[in-house]
Design brief:
This protein is α+β, with helices and mostly antiparallel strands. It contains 15 helices and 32 strands. The site of zinc ion (ZN) has 5 residues, from α5.
């Protein structure tokens, strides 16, 4: 029964592939004016039989949950069919309809302006081109499963191309993508980047460094390999044939974006020499590398295959991103870059930060995931009061879940077992994404206990984090140094702009919130004393009243503000030297 239906599937697939393989898609990207930030793109489609073809530019880049409208950077769109000019028109913000009138060969040309520095947008100047594929290549509507070839013609002073795409043997700077999902998941760096390689977990890794910097190649080869090996150990396999790190070194840089067999990292050019800077870079490497399993393969059901024309909604970014933020710390510890104490301190800092986020009492982490498109990626002055980051809260939930699984199984299992089982079940066996219910079911299967109250309280709810209980399971004492204290708290943040002190944030339910200070107010004086750089409460006490004079839209106003006590926690952790054997078992498994 199983074999028969599989055979049927193979026949259907091969018939489908023969029919589809009549259509051929090829791109050529060249650079006439890189100094003005332009690329010329040519797209050749052959094997067409219809009256028209719609070509579309994605509106977003997977991994970065914001509609970015990449088609806004396209100009000079032009089309010919069988060598002759044809009519075309715009039919959607990101789509052009080319009336090819059954002609088999359609050639489309356009110019692309690229001047936004980030890991998910293209940037071109006289020194290099970074091509973020979703904003470069158009796809013929309905043909996302088609293979394509990409030929890069570097500018005359450039001599290298770095990408995760498969090279075509014998053809310079020419690559193939088995389908558009792979093409869109493969950024391309063109220029004179410094390239070096290392082997880890049996996979060749290439590092392409743009922008120079004080990095030590030999040291990076050894240390990046350790991270690769720790990640591979969790999942039991490394699914790539080769992997490419594209690193952009800037005066101040950061951030990264994950791809199937590559990543783009932003780094600070001269940050590699300090311990903090170096570990920060390795942390980023660990984060993006871990994503090759968690989110690029093991993924929420909405995240692939993608809809490139619209938002793709999921309530699970707390697993996709938050757990990755958690695992970057685990990989750093297991690779020996941080101590047990550093590890615990980092985790307690994460709990501390979420506990002190007012928005964590308003928005659940499932809601935060779903609304990433309109909230996390579009923050405003009130975001801290109304939203929680699925990175930060997801990291905390990773910690709690990991400890709870180890506790429930007396140290026999951990979150690693859940992640590996999910990878095997949904990516490898079923070849699809998971639902929230399926993720919860796997946690329950591995731990042997119900996680319904965990989900109600922490995933779909906004309950306070029981840090003493969870860390206590692992023999770690966490205490709040602010407990029992009455510390006056104004709840106002400000910044100096052009010599003026401007209010930039008001914390929910704080003294400033209750008594009416607003964001954008210019701070003039407190009790008649001019504000120099920010408000200093000095020896003021809870219950004292201040007169804060502000300039609001050109009008002077005085506000009486009565100081309330702050509600923030200040958590510190310590490994309990007298922890029970049971707690030590949990700790050992968790670490
Ligand atoms: Zn991430």
């Amino acid at each position: 029964m199983k074999k028969a239906s599989l055979l049927g599937l193979v026949i259907l697939l091969s018939v489908g592939m023969t029919a589809k393989s009549q259509v051929k898609i090829g791109f050529e990207v060249s650079f006439k004016e890189p100094q003005a930030h332009y690329a010329e793109v040519e797209m050749n489609i052959s094997g067409l039989t219809k009256d028209y073809v719609d070509v579309k530019m994605p509106v977003w880049a997977p991994g970065s949950y914001l509609v970015r409208e990449f088609s806004k950077s396209v100009e000079g769109f032009n089309a010919t069919a069988n060598g002759k000019p044809v009519k075309y028109e715009k039919v959607r913000k990101n789509a052009w309809r080319v009336y090819s009138a059954k002609a088999s060969n359609v050639k489309i040309k356009y110019r692309l302006y690229a001047f936004e520095v980030s890991v998910r947008t293209s940037f071109i100047d006289d020194s290099h081109a970074f091509l973020s594929s979703t904003g470069v290549f158009m796809y013929p509507d309905g043909m996302l499963k088609q293979p394509s070839t990409v030929k890069i013609i570097p500018f005359k002073t450039w001599n290298k191309v770095s990408t995760g795409l498969e090279p075509v043997a014998g053809q310079a700077f020419t690559y193939t993508a088995a389908n558009f999902d792979i093409l869109y998941d493969s950024p391309i760096e063109v220029g004179n980047q410094d390239v070096f390689e290392f082997m880890a977990s049996g996979v060749k890794h290439e590092v392409a460094m743009y922008g120079g910097g004080n990095y030590d190649k030999e040291r990076l080869k050894v240390d990046m390999a350790k991270i690769v090996e720790q990640g591979t150990a969790i999942y039991g396999e490394n699914p790539n044939k080769h992997y490419t790190f594209i690193v952009h070194n800037f005066s101040v840089g950061g951030g990264g974006l994950e791809h199937l067999n590559s990543t783009v990292l932003g780094a600070s050019r001269n940050g590699y020499a300090s311990k903090e800077g170096y570990n920060g870079f390795l942390n980023l490497v660990a984060h993006e590398y871990y994503h090759l399993w968690n989110v690029k393969r093991l993924r929420p059901v909405a995240l692939g295959p993608f809809d490139y024309d619209n938002e793709n909604y999921t309530t699970n970014l707390w697993v996709a991103e938050g757990f990755t933020a958690y695992y970057e710390n685990k990989l750093m510890r297991r690779a020996g870059f941080i101590s047990d104490t550093d590890f615990v301190n980092q985790l307690v800092t994460a709990v501390n930060n979420v506990s002190n986020t007012h928005g964590a009492k308003v928005q659940s982490v499932a809601e935060a995931s779903y609304d990433a498109w309109i909230k996390l990626y579009r923050p405003n002055e009130n975001s801290a009061n109304t939203t929680v980051s699925y990175y930060a809260k997801g990291e905390v939930l990773g910690i709690l879940m990991d400890i709870e699984i180890a506790q429930a199984t007396q140290g026999a299992k951990s979150l690693d077992d859940v992640m590996r089982a999910m990878y095997n079940q949904y990516y490898k066996k079923l070849g699809r994404g998971y639902t929230d219910a399926e993720f919860k079911a796997m946690v329950e299967q591995v731990s042997g206990k119900s996680f319904t109250s965990f989900w109600d309280k922490y995933v779909n709810g906004t309950g306070p984090i029981e840090y003493e209980k969870y860390f206590g399971y692992a023999g770690i004492r966490v205490k709040d140094e602010n407990a029992g204290k009455s510390i006056p708290y104004l709840g106002l943040s400000s910044k100096k702009t052009e010599g003026k002190i401007i209010v930039s944030g008001i914390a929910r339910n704080s003294s400033a919130w209750v008594d009416g200070i607003n964001v954008n107010d210019e701070l003039i004086s407190v009790d008649g004393v001019p504000v120099q750089s920010s408000i200093d409460l000095g020896d003021k006490k809870v219950g004292d009243t201040l007169t804060i004079r502000v300039l609001r839209d050109g009008i002077v106003r005085d506000f009486k503000v009565t100081l309330k006590a702050g509600t923030s926690v200040k958590l510190v952790a310590e490994l309990d030297g007298n922890a029970s054997d049971a707690a030590l078992k949990v700790r050992k498994r968790w670490f």
